[in-house]
Amino acid sequence: MSAGGSDERADAVVVGAGLTGLVTAVRLARAAGSGRRVLLLEAGGEPGGRARTTEHHGYRLGLGPRALYRTTRDELRALGVRVPGGEPDLTGSLALREGRLHPGYAAPGPLLRTALLAPRERIAVARLLGLSRGRPWLAGTDAAQWLADRLPTERAREAAFAVLRISAYVGRPEMIDAEALAAHFAGVRRGVRYADGGWRTIVDALLARAESLGVRPRTGSRVTAVEGGARPRVTMADGRGIRARTVVLAGLPQRAANRLLDHPEPAAPPGRSLHTACLDVALSRLPDPHRTLVFGVDEPLYLSVVSQSARLAPQGGAVLHLARYDDGAGLGATEVRKRLDELLDLCQPGWRDVLVHERFLPRITTMTAVPEARSGGLAGRPGPRVPGHPGVFVAGDWVGPRGLLADACVLSAARAAEAAAGRL
Ligand SMILES: Cc1cc2nc3c(=O)[nH]c(=O)nc-3n(C[C@H](O)[C@H](O)[C@H](O)COP(=O)(O)OP(=O)(O)OC[C@H]3O[C@@H](n4cnc5c(N)ncnc54)[C@H](O)[C@@H]3O)c2cc1C
């Protein structure tokens, strides 16, 4: 219930200081102009959300692997944030099949030579991966159907999906709308970058930019309710209230946003959330400098020595990320950890002798709602406006008709900030 006169006043409140909230706050402050009071409220002890990076004796570890795609980079550059770093060497990648490493084929040249496929399969896979631009007529078809329509054999379908999966974190092609995956992959082909210093570099730069524009960040500030209407009111966990002209719920899963607004659950549930098991490792020395980028073909596994392309470790040291994507197999944490250890043993034998730090995250949310074929893919995602609440907007990886993962966050943040700025 509204408190009243004792409420703090603000022009705009952004709830959530992950990547979405940081981009929203910068854009909103920039559009609003000086003198406006923009608050950025974060429940956690620091900004960054899932884009946080931790530091251990000079090694920078993301919460799982992080590749910056071109769309996000372009959006950040438009805000004055440049991200130094390097590109992974796809031509040197390896493919893991039936427990053995083979020359990889994530780049076009190696794909046309791979011994894992017959010549006609290679050409079919190369065509599919080379031409998979956004194709609206694929919307409403799941990626399994798309691959079945386009590729001659099960082996070719498995091989193609092994490459597509790395960019989208989706374990099985049935899980995602074909157009969403194809459009995303076309964007990924425009360039992938590992960031020097990890994604903390991005978080720090966005925070500094926001503060320079007058945004006031507050950590340890959990919002427990949002009353909509023309002049929304935010209730904090300690009972205090903030009255604002506009509120953006930035990076909260759809369910969490609905709960804050006291909305009933939608009849059609949002797309399923996607989880990944991650093993983050810091080594004082890399046992094998040639086995540094591996993707699983018959099992959704991934290994990358990110420090080969970006500054993340002290001289001579290495930072590795391993992942097992969610394929609905329902493996327990112990079994998943065993398979990641086996992959690390295979690629970097003796790694335990040079271990500085490790962190196993059995189930971290990579996407809060996958665009599924049954719900119309990207076109089926909601926009930034919240029906019935003219002053409240949403942004995040489940909002808007474009992008997956961080791309969706930054694109939807731009739209929500523009709409919210219109209320000031
Ligand atoms: C393992 C992993 C690998 C990934 N790899 C890639 C990749 O390679 N490329 C890519 O583009 N993307 C990748 N992503 C996705 C990308 O990291 C996320 O899309 C992005 O960081 C999400 O940012 P967000 O702000 O939307 O959400 P979050 O980071 O979850 O931020 C939401 C914030 O809101 C805060 N909050 C929640 N509720 C409240 C409340 N009631 N009051 C106040 N604050 C609240 C939370 O504490 C949190 O800080 C990856 C994600 C994971 C997990």
Structural account:
This protein has 11 helices and 20 strands. 30% of the residues lie in helices and 25% in strands. A hairpin with a 2-residue loop joins strand 3 and strand 4 (59-62). Helix 2 (70-78) runs parallel beside helix 11 (405-421). The protein has 424 residues and is an alpha+beta fold. Among the domains are: 8-51 and 201-271 and 371-421, FAD/NAD(P)-binding domain (3-Layer(bba) Sandwich), CATH 3.50.50; 90-188, no CATH class. Bound molecules: flavin-adenine dinucleotide. The site of flavin-adenine dinucleotide (FAD) has 37 residues, from helix 1, strand 14, strand 18 and helix 11.
Report, as a whole number of angstroms, the end-to-end distance.
24 Å
* SS element count, helices: 11
Small molecules (ligands, ions, cofactors) in the structure: flavin-adenine dinucleotide
CATH topology of the domain at 8-51 and 201-271 and 371-421: FAD/NAD(P)-binding domain
CATH architectural designation of the domain at 8-51 and 201-271 and 371-421: 3-Layer(bba) Sandwich
Structure classification: alpha+beta
**Global morphology:** globular
- Tell me the major beta sheet: 8 strands, mixed
